[in-house]
C-alpha cells in the first residue's frame, strides 16, 4: 500500500464488570486504535497495551510515545510498503512488540481490503468457526466464582479458564471442579508464583486441568522447565513467549508443552503464524490468547485461531464478555459455543464511527 499517514487514538471503553488477575483489576479498557491512511483506503489495527506495565513492560503511554516518535516515522519514510515489510522496517527499534503489532495489523487490513481478501484467508484459516473459551477473573470468593462460571457455561462457552494467584488457587479450582465436574478447565497465574511455591502448584495436579498458564516470571524459562518436570499438568507459556525465537527456546528447554499465542505480545499476526507453524511441526498444541480486544483485534484473533494448529479453544470470547458497546457494527457473538471467522475483506469489520468517537479520549494524526 501507499501509506500517507497514521491516526492513533486512545480509547477508554467501560467493561461490563471489573476484570481481576494476579497483577491487578481493570474496570475500563484503555487501548490504542490505529488507522492506516492509504491511497487504497483505510486499515484498522489495535495496540493491546494496558494502562500500566503489569502484564508486560509495555503500557499505553509508552506505546503511544514509541509509535509517534519512532515507529510511525519509520513506516512513513518507506511510503510504499507491503504488510510483510512492516516487521523488518521496525526491527531496528528494540522491543515494543504490541505497538509494532498494532501498526502492522492496520497496514495488513488496508492491503487485504484493497485486494478483496480476508485476513483468515491470508493467514491460512481452515475452519469457518472456532470453539470459544472464556477467561474468568478472580472473584470476591469461591462461591461467586462458581456463580460466574455457571453463567458462562449457560451461555455456551466451551472451555473455562480461571485466574489464580497465591491464596486463591487450590480452593478456587476445587470449587469449580466440584460444581461442574468434567468440564474443560485451565488456570492462569500471570507469573504470580516462584519455584518456592512448587508444593501448591503440585496440588493442582489432582484437578486434571488442560494446562497451567504462566505460573512463573516472564524470563524464568529454566525454572519453568524445572517445574514442568514436577507437574503432571501441562505447562503453557504466555508472557514468556515474546517471539518466534523465544518459542523455539522454550520448546528446546522443555519449559512449555503448550503455547498461548497472542499476536500483540509477539509483534504481530505474521509472527504469530510463524510460531504456529513451528509448534505445529513440533506437535505442540497452541491456542489463541486475548487482551480484552475491541472488535478490531477480536476479529483478527478469530481469523488466527482458525489455523490448523490451534487445537485448544482460545480466549476468543464474544464481544459482550467484556463490552456492552463495541466499536464495530456487528461485534463477534457466541453461537453454539463458537464464534465465526470473519469472511469480509481484511478484518471483515465495519467500524462504528459514533461509538469510536464516544470512547476516544485522545486522537492524533501523523502524515508524511
Ligand atoms: O494472561 O491471558 C492473559 C487479559 C489481559 C492480560 C493478560 C491476559 C488476559 C486474559 C483475558 O486472560 C483474555 C481475553 O481477552 O479474553
Ligand atoms: Mg495469560
TrEMBL record:
A Pfam family matched in the record: MR_MLE_C
Gene Ontology BP term (one): menaquinone biosynthetic process
Keyword Lyase assigned: yes
UniProtKB keywords: Lyase, Magnesium, Metal-binding
SUPFAM superfamilies: Enolase C-terminal domain-like, Enolase N-terminal domain-like
InterPro entries per record: Enolase-like_C_sf (IPR036849), Enolase-like_N (IPR029017), Enolase_C-like (IPR029065), Mandelate_racemase_C (IPR013342), Mandelate_racemase_N_dom (IPR013341), OSBS/NAAAR (IPR010197)
Domain of life: Bacteria
GO molecular function: metal ion binding; O-succinylbenzoate synthase activity; racemase and epimerase activity
UniProt keyword Magnesium, yes or no: yes
Every Mandelate racemase/muconate lactonizing enzyme C-terminal domain range: 142-234
Entry EC no(s): 4.2.1.113
CDD domains, A to Z: NAAAR
Entry cofactors: a divalent metal cation
Protein name as annotated: o-succinylbenzoate synthase
